[in-house]
């Protein structure tokens, strides 16, 4: 049986990821976006005289991606709203209720014997 004043219990599945894991993930996303930016600038330089429309799109991507990458990298820790609550509340046990008190005028409920009802059912 559990003590009522015992320590609170927490679920490990509701815990947030470690700070080092969060920083590592943000660094990885930043490096990937900067690699895409570098490739798009190189693609713009290579395609400038061949396919100018594609080169302009690649150059625009190369100019806009650093700003987006910095905002994503500095966004901070993500909220894990999809995880269950980390705290398990103590279950409340209902108290047993006492039977209703009878007033002087009330009598005890009749206890029926199943004999008569079963006999009529068996006959039909």
Automatic annotation (TrEMBL):
Region listing for Disordered, in residue ranges: 80-124
Signal peptide bounds: none
Membrane-spanning residues: 30-48, 54-73
Keyword Transmembrane in record: yes
Keywords on record: Membrane, Transmembrane, Transmembrane helix
A Pfam family: DUF3099
Skewed-composition ranges (Basic and acidic residues): 113-124
Record-given protein name: DUF3099 domain-containing protein
Provenance organism: Streptomyces chryseus
Lineage: Bacteria, Bacillati, Actinomycetota, Actinomycetes, Kitasatosporales
